[in-house]
Design goal:
The protein is mainly alpha-helical and 76 residues long. The chain has three helices and two strands; from the N terminus they run βαβαα. The protein is 57% helix and 5% strand.
Length: 76
């Protein structure tokens, strides 16, 4: 991830290695995989909710499995 430390980093570090980039700000929104993943996760949660309300337990569980996989992709 291309990132920079904001002027007032919440972790107080002057080096991204201190907080492993957790407080870093992406240079360009389009380059950040995390923002795309959040959109995918939001859709999966909506799909889960809809399937659960319709009584489609298998579809709901599939959505949760896909959500878990998406989370694993963006974990540092």
């Amino acid at each position: 991830m291309n990132a920079r430390i904001p002027d007032s980093c919440l972790c107080g570090a002057t080096d991204c290695r201190a907080c492993h980039g957790a407080m870093a700000v992406p240079d360009e929104l389009g380059d950040d995989r995390t923002l795309d993943a959040i959109d995918v996760m939001r859709d999966l949660l909506n799909d889960f909710e809809n399937a659960w309300r319709k009584g489609q337990k298998d579809k709901a569980m599939q959505c949760l499995d896909e959500l878990e996989a998406e989370i694993e992709e963006v974990k540092p």
